[in-house]
Amino acid sequence: MESSRVLVIEDHVLVREALVRALEQLDMVCQADQAGTASEAMRLVDAGQAYALVLVDLMLPDMSGFSLLSVLAQRYPRTPVVVVSALSDEASVRRALKAGAAGFISKALSSGELIRAIECVLRGELVTPALDQTGQVTPARAGRRRSIESLSAQHGLTTAQTRVMELMLEGRTNREIAELLGLAEGTVKVHCSAILRALGVSNRAQALVVLARQGLRA
Q1: DSSP labels for 33-100?
Q2: Helix, strand, or coil here: 146?
Q3: What's the rounded Cα separation, in Å, for the pair 215 and 217?
Q4: Whole-number Å distance between alpha carbons of 133 and 100
Q5: 101-108 — which CB contacts under 8 Å span 24+ positions?
Q6: In terms of CB atoms within 10 Å, which end of the chain has fewer, N or C?
Q7: Mean local confidence (pLDDT), 196-213
Q8: How far apart are CA 57 and CA 84, in angstroms?
Q9: Looking at the chain, which residues constitute the CATH 1.10.10.10 domain(s)?
Q10: Domain at 148-213, CATH class
């Protein structure tokens, strides 16, 4: 069985080891590299190791996790980076998504929920945060018969464009997408245009038809 390599970036040793133990319980073979600082993590990534997933805490000793997200998104746009953090307020979630995170997992989740969320990402599915009325994160996963991530890779879409396409599929307007991802509405329009070009269509309705034919529906 082919294994997936995951990088865990967390400065607290006990938490980092707990995440590694969670990875060992996945239904797939997974090898974990560990980093306690942003600089250590970048040395591993820049060395050329291909990671199927990067898990990162927002509170790191040498660099803000938000800043690290931006660096990873710019240098390695094909590598999904998911935040695993105790900061689960709405502002932190949206800021993380704006910085380039492909998803957000709260440390308040049970170990079982954490494992299922990681499995979703490693299967190529999206793990996106949903906010309840208190502004806290609740797990919401987009399970599809065919992976949106695989389709995005096929069409050369970036991580940001993939997140926008997922919300388009849910019927979200540009304004709603902008609010959910913490982006300017003009930026969302640019992403939407890129998605339409990649799919070879001229409007959203046609895009939804193409996605439906790929087995992707709201």
Answers
A1: EEESSHHHHHHHHHTT---SEEEE-SB-SSSBHHHHHHHHHHH-TTS-EEEEES--SHHHHHHHHHHT
A2: coil
A3: 6
A4: 25
A5: 101/69, 102/126, 102/127, 102/159, 102/162, 102/163, 103/127, 103/128, 103/129, 104/128, 104/129, 104/137, 105/55, 105/139, 106/136, 106/137, 106/139, 107/15, 108/136, 108/137
A6: N
A7: 86
A8: 5
A9: 148-213
A10: mainly alpha
Over the stretch 45-56, which tens digit does the pLDDT of each residue have? 999 888 988 999
Q: What's the one-letter identity of residue 153?
A: A
Q: What is the mean pLDDT of residues 191-215?
A: 86
| H or E segment and range at residue 6 | strand 4-9
pTM of model > 0.70: no
pLDDT digits (tens, 9 = 90+) for 18-38: 889 888 888 777 889 999 999
For residues 1 and 16, give the distance between their C-alpha atoms in angstroms, rounded to a whole number.
Answer: 25
Where in the sequence of the chain do the CATH 3.40.50.2300 domains occur? 4-142
- Fold designation for 4-142: Rossmann fold (3.40.50)
Region of 19 please: left (phi>0), alpha (psi -120 to 50) or beta.
alpha
Which tokens go with 35?
Answer: 């980093």
Supply φ then ψ for residue 140, to 5 degrees: -140, 115
